[in-house]
Description:
Layout: H1 5-22, H2 25-29, H3 33-55, E1 59-60, H4 72-82, E2 90-95, H5 101-109, E3 116-121, E4 150-154, H6 157-167, E5 175-180, H7 185-195, E6 204-207, H8 216-227, E7 231-237, E8 242-247
Parallel strand pairs: 1-7, 2-3, 2-5, 3-4, 5-6
Antiparallel strand pairs: 6-8, 7-8
The structure holds S-adenosylmethionine.
Amino acid sequence: MKFSLRNFxxxxxxxxxxxxxxIRPGAYLGFLAAPLIFIGNSLKLSKWITEQRRKGTGFDxxxxxxxxxxxxFTLHKYVIETQAIKAEKIDYLEFGVAGGTSLRWWLKENxxxxxxxxxxxxxEGLPEDWGMFKKGxxxxxxxxxxxxxxxxxxxxxxxxxxxxxxxxVFDSTTRKVLHLDADLFSSTLFVLMSFASILKxxxxxxxxxxxxxxxxxxxxxxxxxxxxxxxxFLGAVNNYLQVAVKIVD
Length: 249
Ligand SMILES: C[S@@+](CC[C@H](N)C(=O)[O-])C[C@H]1O[C@@H](n2cnc3c(N)ncnc32)[C@H](O)[C@@H]1O
């Protein structure tokens, strides 16, 4: 049989993997998994930020010594102005409504009477721990929006979104604005994957906690890789805590 360097390397790697699992490093070094994953995702996020900055397009306030949470609306406003969304008929879908601050802001900003606004939330707080925030935190109780364009969908996204997607009708000429403000990796990934098949060029994704390596960023990274999503960077504020992108195909 002819010697092939490629086959030799493949066999060597297989043997090394076999030995690795045989000696069970996870049994005594398992505690390193979480910090190593965090470091890996932080490096990926840093690379992503560097790539956007190199392009030199979009709104970007990097670098700021202090974050100002309300500055997220500077980014939202920039998106509305540059994409001419103010008077446009849109479908705005917010995932993570809590007390309704951003949903109310969008209801005021978009003046088209035919726009639709959907706010998804458990309204009972986070379904899982998120960093220092514990399961159940951020729960505002019941909310009322005196705008007939707005509908709230109460419950866990994993339960409400499939049902919603089964009954909602989306007009392909109406731009969708997805505001992803659920903080958690699982929630964000679930929503992105659920909408993957109906997102089209021109739709906008806005993230509220993007610069968190193991959560919204990771969900976005996985989603774009799985679905081969192409997007244009629209902008970021608060050192990439809030990020907006537009789907290009
Ligand atoms: C940061 S708050 C939203 C803040 C709000 N957009 C604002 O501007 O004030 C995050 C919300 O996401 C909701 N959330 C996270 N994961 C969820 C899920 N899987 N299903 C339903 N709600 C979820 C939590 O209940 C929480 O109210």
